[in-house]
C-alpha cells in the first residue's frame, strides 16, 4: 500500500478506519486503471484469482521439465491415436520418402556457362546418390539418408530435438567415409544429470556452464555437447558399465567443421534444448484418450446380453442361462461372475423377474465432444482438423483453404529441417567429394564465397495435394507465363520432381517414340511369333 497523503493523515487523526479505507480504495484504483492490470495481469478479479503462476527463465519453464515432457510425449505417441496421427501426418507431408537435393550452382559467380553448370550439377547428383542411397551412410548401417531424415524428424517432434554426429569411417567398396549417427535427445544430458550454472571442473575440463548437456562459454555461445555413452533410461545401463559422458565440441578447433548437428526449433531466447511438439496439448490428449477408452469399454459392455435378477427367494441349482464352458471363459478364476454365451436362454425360478441394463451407449454426444477437443488440439499443432482426421466433408473452398494453411506449416517446418539437418550434411559430403577428387570444384577451399556458390542447393519434398488437378495445372501455367514463378518451382511444388530432369527424360522419350513411329510407317514392325520383319515373312 502506498504512502498516506496530508489529507489522509489528517483524517487518520480523527477517524483512523475511514482513512484506511480511503488509502485501500486508492490502491485498488491504481491496479484497476493500469492497462493489462485490469485484464490479463489482474490480481483482483475473481475470474483471475485462481490463476496460479510462477514465471521463470527458459531453464525453469522449459529445460527443468524436459524429462517429464519427453516421456509423456513418447507415451502419448504410443498410446493415444490422435497424437500418433498428428506426428505421422507431419512426417508424411514434410519429409515423406525423404527430401532430395537439387544443386543450384551459382554459375555467374563461378564464371561457368549454363551448360557447364548443368553438367556439374548432374555429376553431383550422381555422386550423391552413391552415398545417400546406401545404408553405409548410416553409422549403424541400417537406413539410407532418406530414411534417416524420417527418423530424425520424428525424433525431433517426439522429443523436442534430435542430434546427429558426423564421424568419418572407412568402408570397403564405399568411396565416401562420411557417416551420420543419430543420437536420441535423452543421451545428451549433463554429467551425473546435474546442470552447472557456474564455472567448475567436469571430468578434468574447465567449463563455464552446462544446461541439459549443452555447454556454453561466458558469452552464452554453445561450444560443446555432452553425450552419455548409454541411454540414461535404459534398464540395462547399469550392467555393462557405469554411465560415462563424452564431450563433443560443436565445431572443429582447426577446421571449423561441424562435429554435431542439433535439430531443434527454439521458442525463447536463451533456450538450449527443444520442446516436444505435443507438450502444449499433452493434458488434452491424455484426457481425450481416457475418455475414448471409457466410451469404448462402456459400448462393449452395453453390447453384451446383461441382465439383473431380482429375487423374492434365493434360487438353487445350476446358474441361469447358457453358460460358457470353463475352459473358454475369460475370467474363470472369479466365481462371483457368470459369463453367458451369445443368444443365452434364461431359465428363471419362481418369483424371479428380469431387469435389463440400459447404459445408453454408444454415447450420441461422443462425436461432437471429441471433435471440439480435436479442433483445439489441431489448432495448437497448426494442423487443420480436416487434415488431422483425414475428413474433407466441407466444401471444395473450405477443404482447399485448410490444405493451403497446412502446407504453410509444412513449408516452414521443411525449411528449418533442411537448415538444421539436410543442408549441413550435404555440404559435409560435397566437401569430402571435392577433397578426394571425385567432384571438380576449383577454388572450393580457397574462399567461403566460392564454396557457397558450389554448395547452393534446394531440397524437394512431397508435392502438395491437388483437389482439382486441372485447375492447379492451369494456375501453374499462368504463374510461369506471368513470371511469378518458374517451371522448376512449379514442378517441385506439384509433384516434387525436377523440371530439368523431366525435360531431359521427355527428349529421350520423344526420340524413342519417333523411332517407333518411323518403323511403323515403313512397315517394319517385328512379328510377335518369329521376332522378324513382317516383310520378310510375306516374301517367304
Given the helix and strand composition, which structural class is it?
alpha+beta
Give unreliable regions as ranges.
none
Cross-sheet strand order for the largest sheet: 6-7-8-9
Strand fraction equals 5-15%
Output mean pLDDT.
83
Q: So what's the overall shape?
A: extended
- Largest sheet, if any? 4 strands, antiparallel
Query: Assembly state here?
Result: single chain
Helix content: 40-55%
Number of strands: 13
What is the radius of gyration?
A: 34 Å
N-to-C span:
118 Å
- Please, how many helices? 18
Characteristic key phrases:
extended; 540 residues; single chain; alpha+beta
In short:
With 540 residues, this protein is an alpha+beta fold. It has helices spanning 6-14, 16-32, 46-49, 58-61, 66-79, 81-94, 107-110, 114-132, 145-159, 282-303, 366-381, 385-389, 396-435, 448-455, 469-482, 487-495, 499-521, 534-539; strands spanning 100-103, 162-165, 181-183, 200-202, 205-207, 209-211, 214-216, 222-228, 245-249, 260-263, 307-311, 352-356, 457-460.
List the helices and strands and how they pair.
Blueprint: H1 6-14, H2 16-32, H3 46-49, H4 58-61, H5 66-79, H6 81-94, E1 100-103, H7 107-110, H8 114-132, H9 145-159, E2 162-165, E3 181-183, E4 200-202, E5 205-207, E6 209-211, E7 214-216, E8 222-228, E9 245-249, E10 260-263, H10 282-303, E11 307-311, E12 352-356, H11 366-381, H12 385-389, H13 396-435, H14 448-455, E13 457-460, H15 469-482, H16 487-495, H17 499-521, H18 534-539
Antiparallel strand pairs: 1-13, 2-3, 2-10, 4-5, 6-7, 7-8, 8-9, 11-12
Could you explain the architecture of this structure?
The chain is α+β, with helices and mostly antiparallel strands and 540 residues long. Among the domains are: 39 residues, no CATH class; 86 residues, no CATH class. The protein is built from 18 helices and 13 strands. The strands form five sheets. The chain has a four-stranded antiparallel sheet, with no helix packed on it. β4 and β5 form a beta hairpin. α1 runs antiparallel to α2, α6 crosses α9 and α10 runs antiparallel to α11. The protein is extended, with a radius of gyration of 34 Å. The chain starts with 5 loop residues before the first helix and ends with a helix. The mean pLDDT is 83.
